[in-house]
Design a protein that fits this description.
This protein is 23% helix and 36% strand. The protein is of the alpha+beta class. The radius of gyration is 15 Å and the shape is globular.
Amino acid sequence: MTQTQPISVAIAIIYQDGKYLMQLRDDLPTIAYPGVWGFFGGHIEPGEEPEAALRRELKEEINYLSPTLTKFSSNQTGNYIRHIFSSPLTVSVSELDLKEGWDLKLLTPKEIQQGFAYSDRAIANKPLGDIHRQIMLNFMASIKQC
């Protein structure tokens, strides 16, 4: 049996005024985590550093150039190695250009805790991906301890 190489990804916890920017992923069965709220970010190319990959992904997905990326954690769950960074959102959400995904929104801590948030574009409550919600809960717990 051939062992599969883990997939390395870089993802961003983007925050503004106590809320967290998340992407409603396209509802396509061919992608990971279809139709749920998740993070912006994506695959790390061979030879690419996680921070550089995240900067590239943020530019590609929402045309955002983050002034600061702070490493939160790296972990492996299943076949994914996730490099997680936090970043302030220094522009209005209306200034972002959503190029990937169905919707984007600043979610409140309450929405993250309850595990779903309303999407104006989907005209429905949509769930957070389980792993995305857990990472957010961990992050929110870590900043309350500071």
